[in-house]
Amino acid sequence: MDLDLLVFSLDLVSTFAFALVGARVAASKGLDFGGILFIAAIASISGGTLRNLFMGEQPPWVKSPWLFAPIFVAFLITIAMGKTQEVGRFALSLDTLGLAVATVSSAQFALSHDAPLVAAAVLGLTGAVTGGLFRDIMCQTEPVLLHRETIGTACLSGAVVYVALDSFNLNEGLVVAIGGLVVVLVRELSIRNNWNLPKIVKG
Known about the structure:
This protein is mostly helical.
């Protein structure tokens, strides 16, 4: 399997998922069309950008301008819907898909550029959660990453599983599927059961 093609394909899927969720969050906050498009872009490409910069590479959208296409499609879908209700369960599921794909894509990118195993797992986490963190901060919403749904735990778990299985030279498609499934399962279970990491109780 062509690893560059795999990484690009995964980036394309996660870009659309993150862009659509970002656009919906921006619309729910009453931003104008320019704001919606900007947040969609930030939510979808900042994770891959930071991942590549850490590896001394150009951002993926510089190498592959086609990554802007799913962002614009997500923007058009949001405008066509014309509703500003809060992000619903479908958007959360789409966001989970984006997290799974971005985690695997980022870990794979790091490994394909000779990053150590620990660094690859950390970059898998970084590439997945950065966009959502920036999205929430810029929309003046308490970042989900920092207080609920174990997003970071889900992505780090998936990245560690992917990196570990990849070291055994197993079928690439199988490794990608298992790593992504771990992210989906941990996040979906945390949403269903209202899990979060321990917090300091206020006195």
